[in-house]
Design a protein that fits this description.
alpha+beta; SIR2/SIRT2 'Small Domain'; Rossmann fold; 3 domains; seven-stranded mixed β-sheet; five-stranded mixed β-sheet; binds adenosine-5'-triphosphate
Length: 468
Amino acid sequence: MNKQKITIEKITSLCKRRGFVFPSSEIYGGFAAVYDYGPYGIELKNNLAREWWKHMVQMRADVVGLDSGIFMHPTTWKASGHVDGFDDPQIDCKDCKTRMRADHMLEVFGIDADKMSANEINAEIEKLKEKGKKLKCATCGKTNLTPAKNFSLMVKSNLGSPTDELSEENVVYLRPETCGGIYLNYKNILDSTRVKLPFGIAQTGKAFRNEIVARQFIFRTREFEQMEMQYFLRKSEMQEKYEEWKEARWNWYLEYGIKKENIKWYKHIKLAHYAAEAYDIEYNFEALGGFKEMEGIHQRGDWDLSQHQKFSGVKLEYLDQKTGEKFIPHIMETSVGLNRMFFAFLHEAYTEEEVDGATRVVLKFDRRLAPIKIAVFPLLKNKPELVKKAKEVFTDFSKKYMCEFDDNGNIGKRYRRQDEIGTPYCVTVDFDTIEKDNSVTVRDRDTMEQERVKIEELDDYFLEKFKI
Ligand code: ATP
């Protein structure tokens, strides 16, 4: 049994074929960089978000949750610097019109252009030219390119003024990250709950970015979901808490089945002016060519709250009850894209095995993440007594687990289908169930072993299997 090379074609084809992820608006010819999540996709996404929330909020005495609006007062994004500076440098091919990220194009020449402006990038391009090197279009390979220019990632809306042209005065933005809502509710949470420093506020939800290039399936899309936690603390506590959170997030991935060799730390060399330290957890997206950012764990200083205090005129200081001291808390954040995480877990679970001369594709998800926990089959579709019993088992267990009833095709086909969606257990009702022993066959996804279990013992059996 060996794990074969994972390609983007294999992943996207499985996602489409088995109802995980569909390209958006297909019947209208598609809509770039947006994806829809099908019946199994939504289950996996919900399971990931729930397990994240469990560790980030439920199991923490020092973190509370929030669900803020996607639309916010437009000044929010002036204060945060997004309106003036949330840009990516763009280069267009004048011949084939391909649009490219200029910073990514410079990477080929070993230049880290991550935080460079368009002007700085153009200066680098000039230096390359002097050395006889030229940037090439990623699609047609020609060198007839525009200079780099800044391209705002902010998505605008005309909310509230539908007939007007969008202008500086009436524009509202769809949030480009969820943490904006956390900063704006920091004071509400401080005033309405019993939180004391250090404490965190977590939220999950949609974010929107007008990405220049979005051709990597669900890795980079224009509409996506983020799961963020902002941790408010005293400056003196930063390093210790930062290390704790780095460890907590790293271990979370291992706990849910990511192999140690498939994640690594990336230390940011070029930091935002307010940041003292920033690391990303990168995942080995083999289908995209290697390690890429999955989650950021960043120190943010007191910049965010200071900016919002300045722009709103509302005091956002924290009063230390013991010392009487007032100050703006510092912040560290953990920030991950749910869709990118989904991709990573799907990638990790994807396995091809040789079984009896044929290839078996199986998604080896951790049981807690599997979209369907138990599939229930009658051995034969045209035997009403088997169907009736199998439906009874389904009705019973679907109160506790996400189950699926399937009477299509033969057992072999049903197993293959359940393997491809990662269902840990398949339960089959056969003639012996009815006529002899009131037992069913339970088949294990990973070992493919089958065992007979009495129906009255199934409850305990699955309790044990799904025990954490
Ligand atoms: P990148 O460098 O990949 O553009 P970023 O550094 O701008 O990402 P952050 O602003 O730090 O990303 O966002 C935090 C997390 O949100 C990222 O680690 C990623 O998981 C997710 N994310 C950001 N942009 C996208 C996107 N366009 N599509 C999907 N997920 C995204």
